[in-house]
Amino acid sequence: MFRHMLPIVVLSLIIIMPVAAYAENVFYVHPADEVITGGVNFTVGVRLNATDDVYAAQAVLDFDPTVLVANAVSEGNFLNYDGASTSYPKGVSIDNANGRVYFANTRLNPAVNGVSGDRELFSVYFSPLGIWGKTYMNLSGLKLSDPDGSYLFYSTRKGTRTLTPVYGDVNGDCIVDIFDLARVGIAYGTYYGNPYWNPSADVNKDGEIDILDLGTVGLHYWEECCTTNSPPEMDAGGPYVINEGEPLELDASESADPDEGCGDSIEKYVWDLDGDGDYEHNASGSKEMLLWPDVESYVCGGTCSANFPYTLWVKGWDTKGSAGTSMAYLFILSNCSPSTEICDGLDNDCDGQTDEDFPTLGDVCSVGIGACQSNGHIVCTTDGSGVECDAVAGTPQTETCNGLDDDCDGAVDDNLTPPPCELQTGVCYGSTKTCAGVSGWSACGPSDYGADYEQTETRCDGLDNDCDGQTDEDCGNQSVICIVDADHDGFGTMTGATVVAPDGSCDAEDGESTTSNDCNDADAAINPGAAEVCGDAVDNDCDGQIDEEDGLGCFVFYPDADNDGYGAFYNSKCLCSPTGIYSATTPGDCNDENADINPGAQESCNGIDDDCDAEIDEEGAMGCTTYYYDGDSDGYGLFGNSKCLCSPTGIYRATTAGDCNDADANISPGADEVCNAIDDDCNGVVDDGISGASDGGTNDACSQSSYFGVIHENDAEVSWSDKLYPSGDKDFFRFYANEDTGFTLISETFTVRIRLIPPQGAYCSDFDLYLYDDSCNLLASSKLSGCSEETITFSWDGDGFTDDSRYFRVGVEGYSGAFSCSPYSLYIDMYEE
User: Fold this and answer.
1) Of 418, 463, 560, 718, which has the most beta carbons under 10 Å away?
2) Which helix (H) or strand (E) holds 708?
3) For residue 7, how far is the Cα from the chain centroid?
4) Could you tell me if 765 and 818 are in contact, meaning their C-beta atoms sit under 8 angstroms apart?
5) What is the value of pTM for the model shown?
């Protein structure tokens, strides 16, 4: 509830009825009655409820242009709703200068009839020029035609709008904030008639600024009148860093609509994944998951390049139809060859960060001065060796009297030729106008015409003082007694002699004066009409003070109670030198009782606005901690996406980086590896360190083959059993094929038989079987399909007299695409035939 209600202003939409009106066809504004927060944009619809066949319609909507501004007109669906004909809007325009919106349209098909029914003819989108006001809205210029071009009669009916203001908005900027609170605080305790009275600070209009006014501001603090529809401020997230083969979670959840306090919000997200400007990927919300095949297809267009900055764009629409965009980079990590980091958007030195040696990259910058100043951002140079500002200075123009530095020379309104004043006769001859900055050339006044000017001539000094072409027209032939003016500055002294002026006026040029308050009649620069000059130790204006406040050449000094070099923003004085508490030339101190708090101080993490920028403990403050982007709240964040904050804020809440999947809280450097074909602990290896998931043997290389015995010709077979892990495991076994010298055979034939039994729940995988000599040279190979039995038969020549026995090696390798965290049972039988 409002404690002190301001008047509610009703905006009536008064619809004027034609002289000859019938009820068959009705123009009306809708909705009939609506309450709108003061300053909020709103739409007025004009509808037509027709019983006749209407083929064309015309209407004009009148409004008060001092209260409202019309932003846009959109055509309704009255004439083209049935699809039988298109409609052609004609004369659709907005005249905000006179407060009129014109609209007319017609169907375009001679083969169709007119239409009837109750539908929108057109609608107008309005913005109030203030937070409250009163306006009229009339429908005029109304005409209806049937398919034959004949006139149709119509009637109208009224509608209303009610605007309620934003209470507590003292300075009228459409938001209740610290500046409104400060204005009430400065005038606190004053009342009507008091020198420090501020009528705008009297929120409840009771003639006294007290606790009730402060309470009203506090009650409505942060409320806005929403005079415009701001587009959404989109945040595409990122930079995204994934490994090859991993899914990508797009996260635009940090996007926000500035008008959320006014009932607006983001309702649609669309992504441009390949950076071609087409937003073809609709998202179900602010987050969207892409599996690796989708990343390859949509983002990379086939094959992804490692360490290449892919650009991802998100576009969002709010409920009022405004759109905003944002861009983020995607980096796909692979084997990296470190090099010197340059400014090119790439991680050249393979440390997980991009362009980290260029901390000013992206900062706001400007070039040029005056009207030529142009703002931009710090960007990488073409060769990547450094950074530069991408802004381009404007072109200097001819200097004019407008409060701007048009010729961009660092001075405002300089080197101008002033136009002559309106009066150019008598003492006004040669007078010129003064440039008043943004107000242009000011009209001439007495100060522009000089000290001899009089609006009504009273002096008898031989001059045309009122610049009417006549001299001393009211003087006659008389003389007066004047005080001697020795320095001819127009002022005499108390002790000065008198003299008779025969021309009837006391003229300074003749050493005559009517005044006697000159404090130095020997110096024409010193008199009551002179300006006090700072720094000359002289009472220039004869007021008994030397170098007083507002003297010529004075400086603005602000009260600096804590002597930190910064003054409070209120109650400044123009002094010749610092005086008392007025000693600071720079304002902006937000706490003039603490020398450690001022605009030049370093912000620290202490819960205080140290640097007076209206922010407390902002990013980068002294003593801040690096927090990483932690989207899944598992305590581990992403490399290359961090902020130095005084405390965890939003998604930036992890103090440890290294998360390889920030969309899954079960995956992080602190997680336990489980058997699931996923790198749970982010060490780059899948399903490692699981108990029983590695044979840990010494037979993982041909040169380290496990020895399992001798095979004799014509003797019993030799059997061997082991464990084998199918996902890329490869084991080697060494045996001795013995040729007994007692036999006369010149060729010996041996057979190796392989059998595999999968663990419970696993499927039969393919395995490769290899035969090597003792030097690990490949002799033969075969593939074991599934769990079938496979053999390799081999022979070598012997001479039948010498011993040709030798060593052989057998290798068994699991298919790299298979998966099991439990071993297969491996059985090897070897025999000589």
Assistant:
1) 560
2) strand 706-712
3) 37
4) yes
5) 0.30
Q: What are the beta bridge partners of residue 830?
A: 718, 752
Amino acid present at 199: P
Q: Which tokens sit at 825?
A: 């049972």
Cα–Cα distance measured from residue 547 to residue 534, given in angstroms and rounded to the nearest whole number: 5
pLDDT of 648-701, one tens digit each?
Answer: 988 899 999 888 888 888 898 988 776 666 888 898 877 676 644 455 556 778
Query: What sign does the CA torsion over 512, 513, 516, 520 have?
Result: negative
Q: Which helix (H) or strand (E) holds 216?
A: helix 211-219
Given strand 155-157, what is the order of strands in its sheet? 68-75, 115-128, 42-54, 26-30, 155-157
Longest dimension (CA), the chain: 168
Which contiguous run of DSSP H or E holds residue 181?
helix 178-186
Task: Phi first, then psi: give them for residue 593, nearest 5 degrees.
Answer: -110, 0
Instruction: Please spell the DSSP secondary structure of 561-605, one letter per residue.
Output: TT-SSB--SSS-EEESS-BTTEEESB---S-TT-TT-STTSPPBS
Phi/psi of residue 635, each to 5°? Answer: 90, 0
State mean pLDDT over 14-42: 59
**Distances from the Cα of 503 to the Cα of 183, 342, 472, 478, 490, angstroms:** 58, 87, 10, 7, 16
Q: How far is the C-alpha of 823 from the C-alpha of 821, rounded, in Å?
A: 7
- Dist CA 122 CA 45 (whole Å): 6
CA distances, 282 to each of 267, 272, 321, 419, 801 (Å): 12, 9, 17, 63, 81
Say how far apart CA 724 and CA 776 lie, in whole Å: 20
Tokens 């190796």 appear where? 752
Q: 759 φ, ψ to 5°?
A: -70, 165
539 versus 689: which is more confidently predicted? 539
pLDDT in tens, 229-262: 678 889 998 889 888 888 999 999 989 887 775 6
Cite the beta strand spans of 633-673 per DSSP E.
636-637, 642-645, 652-654, 656-657
* Pair type for strands 33-37 and 159-164: parallel
Strand partners, 584: 558
DSSP per-residue letters across 379-422: EE-TTSSSEEE-----------SSSS-TT-SS-SS-S--PPBPS
